[in-house]
Design the sequence.
């Protein structure tokens, strides 16, 4: 498996090592904005089939790499694979968000959740990892990922997406011990899952805390960050002779950089509401930073995209430890050429910052 | 009109003057969570009829005051009255968000927007203000409001609500001069509108920047805050022998407290992702703070609500200059008794902080 990496810019940048330019990838780079993705999804019949059948997962993972000079592949999967494996009845209806037919609503529901063995219930993910690594042939590193316990818990409790988090917050404020029990279960499952991904071949891992930013500061620390820190702490950090960097991303987490740094990851993902330069000063060389172009910049014409890429690079400033990315997933209605313009601009404009 | 106010706690707290306890009101306190509101809306036939017919607007404005010991009334209206008056074809379909049949998409659309005279096109709002003041009879102050230019512009450009702000951000990044022209128009209209509300009798005003937090920091300053600051600067600040306090509220604005303070308002509204104590240190007695209980706390049982109210009061700490509120509008599916529990807890628990 371990042919040397042709392009290890991402791994080096995540560890704040020197690179000749800023590496770039995009959250949801394998996704609906690509016509080739939509074609594969049509063949597969459903989003879940794409996730659960390694051939499809591999195919869509590699699609953006065929189109753009990206510095990483990210496993095509979903943050809800764990509740899916826990038999909660996950479905993705086209156009709507995910739904879980058997949501977790009581202490009894929580205690009844099965313990997972990733090589059994989530084998399809690990098979996809192994297949993608083979197909990548060492061109770029492969990133694995999972949702944060709090984020995944909200879907499990609500039975799907939510704007107000009515049930999960009723639990948080009304029965916090129950929520903590659920988060414990998810923490253990997520740690095992990410470690299995690492052993199967992913070369960096990222925790997506999409909904941590919906919490009050103290609740964020207690109900989201504390569990992410435990996961980071339990990760296999060295594999196949190389450090496996870990990235934490809390959308809307810009007010909590200091505790985020202390959670022990190698890098923090930032959304576009935080200035990279300000954040860089705040984290004081303790972590790399990943981000943070507003994904809606890609609705503008290529010349404007280039100007905004320049602005993000300038905000981080000279030196290493920056991975260029969007501040959140690429929107499904973006013109793929606009994504290309962004990536080209990073290639072109970033080398002077690494001189 | 100017009978002395029986309860001027709100006005005093907004000006950081001593009060015997922390005043409390709720964003969207006149709203769908109240059965009496739903009954009036059913009689009125539509949301827009409630807004545009002063008798209805007055009736629903007063409903929460009949139920709870609140320290302020807030005019029942909507942030889209200005685009409505500009003839953009506003409609509110039940269950969906607002839509504008004639969105603003080009420089030409922007230049074609009519100039408003509030006493003509928005007379129904001012009549409602005059009627509410009469009906209130000086019990508590009446708050007037408007949307921020950026927030209102997003609806005008998108033709309704948005998650990605695709068109407004395409304009922002691709044709910023056009967006600035639109924001100029809205700034002038909003200033005139708020001043007309003040002359008609509102005793404090609030600017709701619901979508400022969706912007990158520099864009927030240039496209949202700069225009709010101009509005604040142009407000009538003294009326009927009394200071008319101005409140700025940018949802998700917790990272931008320093520029927010400098915009010149008397108070800042904060959502629940910012710690009040941290914010209080940052604003250094220059403004009062309003907020910031997570509105989803009201999904929890009354005892838990009381504990969370205690936490918010403690986070602000001893001293004046705090107005208790939710961190965003009350959710429509909240039990009205839970709102009552929150308000009672503020009455009960806040006096020691003012000793």
Sequence:
């Amino acid at each position: 498996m371990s042919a040397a990496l042709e392009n290890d810019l991402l791994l080096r940048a995540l560890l704040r090592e020197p690179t000749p330019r800023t590496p770039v990838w995009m959250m949801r780079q394998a996704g609906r904005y690509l016509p080739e993705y939509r074609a594969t999804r049509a063949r597969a019949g459903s989003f879940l089939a794409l996730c659960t059948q390694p051939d499809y997962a591999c195919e869509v993972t590699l699609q953006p790499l065929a189109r753009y000079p990206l510095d990483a592949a990210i496993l095509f999967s979903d943050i809800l694979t764990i509740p899916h494996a826990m038999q909660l009845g996950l479905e993705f209806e086209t156009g709507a968000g995910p739904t879980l037919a058997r949501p977790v609503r009581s202490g009894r529901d929580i205690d009844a959740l099965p313990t997972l063995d990733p090589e059994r219930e989530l084998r399809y993910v690990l098979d996809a990892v192994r297949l993608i690594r083979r197909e990548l042939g060492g061109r770029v590193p492969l990133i694995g990922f999972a949702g944060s316990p709090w984020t995944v818990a909200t879907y499990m409790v609500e039975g799907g997406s939510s704007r107000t988090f009515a049930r999960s917050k009723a639990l948080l404020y009304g029965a916090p011990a129950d929520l903590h029990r659920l988060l414990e279960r998810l923490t253990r499952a997520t740690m095992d899952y990410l470690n299995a991904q690492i052993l199967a071949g992913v070369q960096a891992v990222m925790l997506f805390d999409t909904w941590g930013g919906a919490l009050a500061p103290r609740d964020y620390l207690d109900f989201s960050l504390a569990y992410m820190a435990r996961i980071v702490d339990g990760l296999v950090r060295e594999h196949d002779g190389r450090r496996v960097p870990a990235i934490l991303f809390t959308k809307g987490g810009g007010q909590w950089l200091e505790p985020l740094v202390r959670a022990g990851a190698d890098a923090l993902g930032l959304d576009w509401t935080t200035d990279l330069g300000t954040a860089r000063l705040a984290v004081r060389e303790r972590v790399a930073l990943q981000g943070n172009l507003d994904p809606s910049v890609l609705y503008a014409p290529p010349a404007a995209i280039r100007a905004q890429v320049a602005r993000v690079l300038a905000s981080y400033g000279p030196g290493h430890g920056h991975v260029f990315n969007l501040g959140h997933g690429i929107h499904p209605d973006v013109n793929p050429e606009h994504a290309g313009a962004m990536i080209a601009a990073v290639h072109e404009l970033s080398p002077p910052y690494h001189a």
Summary: Chain A has a mean pLDDT of 97. The interface with chain B takes residues 164-167, 169-170, 172-174, 213-220, 252, 254-255, 272-275, 278, 294-297, 299-301, 304-305, 307-308, 311, 331, 333 of chain A (CB under 8 Å).
